[in-house]
Amino acid sequence: MNASSPIGIFDSGVGGLSILREIRRAFASEDLLYVADSAFVPYGDKSPQFVEARSVAITEFLVDRNAKAIVVACNTATGAAITTLRSRFSVPIVGIEPAVKPAVGKTASRVVAVLATSGTLSSDKFAKLLARFGGVVDILIQPCAGLVEQVEAGELHGEKARDLTAKYVLPLLERGADTIILGCTHYSFLAPLIREIAGPQISIVDPNAAIAHELRRRLESNDLLSPDPRSGTEQFWTSGAPNDVKPVVSQLWNADVQVRRLPKRYCRST
Ligand code: DGL
């Protein structure tokens, strides 16, 4: 692999496309490989060992495709697997975690809320964030069962998505939260709905642009930024059925894309 090689990005499903969007915005000439582990979505209710095994298998696939860097576009997989990925693979690996620190800088009420999967909220990594910032502000945590499935179905505005989102968000506002952290990459696609439900005075904190920034820093320091002036390409892969996954990837990516099937050897569940 070299500076002209692609960047690999993965998530349990289509949530990481919100990160891919920021990466494309920040890096016009990079080639991007995206894997949606749709056969195993959601990760949020699986064991950390399971999520770690899937993260290793997908990273192997991306490294076998010559990826020069990996972006774990999933809070749950970052919590379960980033330490293992960094010890097993030599390419730079960038992860994502709920943006508690920026939220602490924004809140006036001193109450912030984290929307995330139960996997993320019960991870050691998140426990460290709570220990670090929990004494500074009140941190309300809200697991959001069912929201990932709404996004996977491309249902971002319907009644069911609205009811479910309101059920999670409104009690947090009643408890004084003025800042909502999107601690799952899927929820970025629900940000307009969350904004409608929570109102204009609430801050919504999403770390996606910061990930692209961190990726640039890592590529620069390893001399891996693409030297090619041409426009970069995107390739989409899934462990699920491409025909089922293609419509929602196309919807969220705003283009009619091709989705390929991940080779079987990277699709095992253990
Ligand atoms: N998008 C993921 C995250 O950021 C995973 C959601 C899931 O599969 O449960 O946590």
List the ligand species.
D-glutamic acid
Instruction: Determine the oligomeric state from the structure.
Output: single chain
Fraction of residues in helix: 40-55%
What structural class results from the helix and strand content?
alpha/beta
Q: Which outline best applies? A: globular
Count of β-strands: 10
* Poorly predicted runs: none
Radius of gyration: 18 Å
One letter per element, helices H and strands E, the order comes to EHEHEHEHEHHEHHEHEHEHE
List keywords for this structure.
270 residues, binds D-glutamic acid, single chain, four-stranded parallel sheet, alpha/beta, 10 strands, globular
Can you offer a commentary on this structure?
- With 270 residues, this protein is of the alpha/beta class.
- It contains 11 helices and 10 strands.
- The strands form 2 sheets. Strands 4-3-1-2-9-10 form a 6-stranded parallel sheet, sandwiched between helices. It has a 4-stranded parallel sheet with strand order 6-5-7-8, with helices on both faces.
- β3, α3 (75-88) and β4 form a beta-alpha-beta unit.
- D-glutamic acid binds next to α3.
- D-glutamic acid binds at residues 11-13, 15, 41-44, 74-76, 117, 120, 148, 184-186.
